[in-house]
Amino acid sequence: MPRGRPTRYDPAFARRARLLCRLGTTNADLARLFAVSVPTLYRWLDRYPEFGLAVAMGRGDYEGSVEPGMFKRATGYEYRAEKIFERNSARPLTADYTCRQVGDPRVAFRWLRNRQPEKWRIRD
Question: How far apart are CA 39 and CA 44, in angstroms?
């Protein structure tokens, strides 16, 4: 007979954890959302392979989408936009234009530090 309290883990937590990790949720946030302690969350990650895999896959999805966005912010980019002018007619007047977002040097430095930490670390 198993000792201790029965687990509160539910197999449906794996799917929910993957979705939450795709949004950038940390382990502390996951523990709070599942109403367990952080050590319990780590036990679940170790004891239930489907839960650990779901968290890893969710984090991989999240990190895979962040890096290209961070690179775009670091180097600058252009995008198409549409301005709608309200008129007293049945059809509003629209105008298409190109917006330019200039590169952000702070984001560029952070991106370089993450990609090559030994080369771009902050020296004392």
Answer: 9
